[in-house]
Design a protein that fits this description.
single chain; alpha+beta; three-stranded antiparallel beta sheet; about 30% strand
């Protein structure tokens, strides 16, 4: 009889411990945003990591020649779902940007800012040779995209 009572007493404690362990695991996964790599085969953990870390390759050109600067092109790998702005930041260039009603507004790149060469000077971007109709933080890049940031001294359509 005493053995039966101790089993009944242990079950609620064991269940409570299991609930706390499951809760801790759920909180840990939510905080990290990833599934644990433990358990299962090594390849399944690697496959999951590769799916979560899928990237796209993008070519980013920063052309500051109109502002008496230089032009450079950098190939970057960014996570899938990244934007034109994310790709620009991934180049390592010094980017001065602020949030606006249309998303991120790039005020300056590499120390060259809008307004440095007149009221109509500033940075514009194209993706695959076409002007975008949305802001740089709203347009996602795809593998193989060519993004060109060009400093202009006068806006013309």
């Amino acid at each position: 009889m005493s053995q039966k009572n101790s089993t009944v007493e242990k079950n609620p404690i064991a269940r409570l411990g299991a609930v706390f362990a499951a809760l801790a695991l759920a909180v840990g996964l939510a905080a990290c945003g990833t599934a644990p790599a433990t358990g299962g085969s090594a390849s399944s953990g690697t496959d999951a990591a590769q799916e979560q870390q899928a990237t796209v390759s993008v070519s980013v050109t920063i052309d500051a020649t109109a502002g008496e600067g230089e032009s450079s092109t950098t190939e970057v790998d960014v996570p899938e779902g990244s934007t034109v702005y994310d790709a620009l930041v991934a180049t390592g260039a010094d980017v001065n940007a602020s949030d606006s009603d249309y998303g991120m507004y790039v005020q300056g790149i590499g120390g060259l800012a809008g307004g440095d060469f007149g009221d109509m000077s500033g940075w514009m971007f194209e993706v695959n040779g076409e002007m975008a109709e949305v802001g740089c933080s709203q347009l996602e890049v795809a593998d193989g995209d060519v993004v060109t940031w060009t400093y202009v001294t006068e806006f013309t359509e």
